[in-house]
Structures are given as structure tokens and as C-alpha cells.
Amino acid sequence: MTSTPFAATLTTNPAARTAEQRDAILADPGFGNHFTDHMFLAEWTPDTGWADGRVVPYGPLQIDPATAVLHYAQEIFEGLKAYVHADGSVWLFRPEANAARMQRSAQRLALPELPTDWFLGSIQALVEADRAWVPAGGEKSLYLRPFMFASEVFLGVRPSQHVTYSVIASPAGAYFAGGVQAVSIWLSTEYSRAGAGGTGAAKCGGNYAASLLPQREAAEHGCAQVAFLDSTEQKWIEELGGMNLYFVQSDGSIVTPSLSGSILEGITRDSIMQIGRDLGHEVVERRVSIDEWRQGAADGTITEVFACGTAAVVTPVASLKWEGGEAVSGDGQPGKVTTDIRSALVDVQYGRAEDRHGWLTRVS
Ligand SMILES: *Cc1c(COP(=O)(O)O)cnc(C)c1O
């Protein structure tokens, strides 16, 4: 059954927080700690398609212990932000790219695709209901988390015949509260994030579950993130647990690992390919080996390294560490190319620079 066009009802939260309570949260929201007064829900079955779209008071979901997602992890998600511009209007950055990626993730996880009008409509409906929760100023944003999971109560192993889609929203502070800081990255040699033919290119919770142990190892070595190599040869740079990588070369070109089938296709990664060209850099997608990173950092061919993703936008990488060694890029401080690319992207998102590529969609 194909889904009907997007439609949603609204049930206003009778226990919504007061303006005072909300302002206290928005003054220092952090990341992922606080949630708005509403959430979006819809369900899919083979008979109905996507149906029963509704904005309802934010609150716990009741989950039967035999709900399929709890056992077999058939789940996918997205992450995007709403930004307030100087005139008070609210905008999304390339939301149709998130919609398309969620459809690709759904395909890989044998979940039903959510039509683009449902994806955009659900976000629009939630942002409208919780407009007062979109924080303004100082690189704050409203982080939106659409997700979909197998909600059939059944322990058999097959694609779920009942699926739930939801969107929740969380006010987010500036990722780098005290100014942009360069971080150290731990090289995981024992674990992979994803394998050939696996789910690395899908945005699914299971990939994150697999990255938590190496992530903890990274933290134990004083590193903020972990870098993964390909699982076949343990040679080619893939990405971090939740961010893609870029290398700035001494000839001014910027290089990002080509999509190998096990790398997540980041929308920030893709946007930086365009912004890099706009700023006059040659942009290259190709395989980058771990030896090239080590060697390039040592001989100066690689002058800057940065990671990118929606949450932190662009994070400068000061060094790569491994058991018994370290490769420092440049002088270990955020480099000029990294900083310029970050500013160019953030300026478009917050409406301070012209939206040359039609990336912004107004939602309020
Ligand atoms: C979401 C994600 C990214 C970054 O994607 P953006 O669309 O830029 O936010 C990179 N790697 C992984 C594994 C991710 O899940």
C-alpha cells in the first residue's frame, strides 16, 4: 500500500514548560540533554502505508518487551538542525538530502521508505509546534532527530510488519563553547566500524553500538574520537565514529576518502566539497592510506586535517595517535583552510552569507 500524502494532527502539551523554564534551558542547552514539549509520531504497516501522522506531547513510548527493535536492532535515524536568522526566521540546511539518505538507510535495513513529503512535513510540523524552543544567537540551534524502528511485537527474524517513525527535537548550544579547539584522534587497529557489504553506509544505531568500545579506548588514550580503517586491508582511512574526514594538502587541494560502501555519506562532507571549490580549492575524492596520513603529517604534505558532521560542523584534528606513536598535522592548532571552510559553511546556515546553492529551506 502506498502512503497517502503527508498530514498531521496536533495535540498541544497541557504540561508544556513555562517561558521561564524554557529560557533557563535555552541559556545553556548543551547537547542532547533537553527535549522540547512535543514530538512527532507515525506508523507504517503493509496495509496502511505511512499513516496517523501526529504531533503529540513529548513523553515515553510504551514498548512491549518483545518489540523487534530491542532484539534485532532494525533501526535508522537522521540528524539535522534548525537555525534562527537575524530577522527571526527559522531555516533547515539541505533537509531533502536527509530525507533521501533516510530512504537509502531504510532500504539497507529492510525498513519501509518514508516519502520525502512525510519527512519534510513531520519536521515542519514539529518546528511549528515548538518554535519557541529554537534558540537564537551564538551558533545555537534546534537539533532534530528523526528515527524509525521495528515496532512489531514478534521475535521471528524477518523485516518488521509494524514500523514507527518519530521526530524529537533538542536545543543545542555551540559545540565549541570556548572557541573552536583542535582534537586528537585515536587510530583503532583492532576494531572496524563497518565491513564490506555491511551497514556502514546506512545511518543506523547498530553502527554506533559497534563504535562504542573503540571510542572508549580512544578516551582512555586522551583522544576525543576514534578513526577507523577499512576492515579488509586495515589500510584505507574510512571515517570517525560519527564524522567524515578531510585532509588539506600543501598544494592547496583538499582530499576526502572516496565513498567505499562502508563510509557514511555525510551531508556536511558533501557541502564542503562545494564550499571548498567555491573558495578556490581543488577537491579530490580518493582513497587515502594510513601511511599517507602518517607520512604526510611528518613531511608537511598534509598541512591540516579536519572532521565534519552536522553536530560539530567542522572539527580541526591536531593529531592522530596510535599505540606508541603520533602524527601531528601542521602546528597542532586549527589551520586557516579548516577555519575558512568552517566559517563559510556556518555563515550560510545562519543566513550571514548568500545561499548560492539553494541549501536553505524556511520552516518558520
Ligand atoms: C551522521 C554521520 C556522519 C555525518 O553526516 P552529516 O550528514 O554530515 O551529519 C558521518 N559519519 C557517520 C557514521 C554518521 O552517522
User: What is bound: which ligands?
Assistant: pyridoxal-5'-phosphate
Q: Find the CATH superfamily of the largest domain.
A: D-amino Acid Aminotransferase, subunit A, domain 2
In the CATH hierarchy, what is the class of the largest domain?
Alpha Beta
Tell me the number of helical segments per DSSP (H or I, 4 or more residues long): 8
Sheet/helix structural class: alpha+beta
Main sheet makeup: 9 strands, mixed
**Cα distance, first to last residue?**
32 Å
Please give the CATH architecture of the largest domain.
Alpha-Beta Barrel
Strand content: 25-35%
Low-confidence stretches: none
Descriptive labels:
2 domains; transferase; binds pyridoxal-5'-phosphate; D-amino Acid Aminotransferase, Chain A, domain 2; D-amino Acid Aminotransferase, Chain A, domain 1; pyridoxal phosphate; 364 residues; aminotransferase; nine-stranded mixed beta sheet; branched-chain amino acid biosynthesis; 8 helices; 26% helix
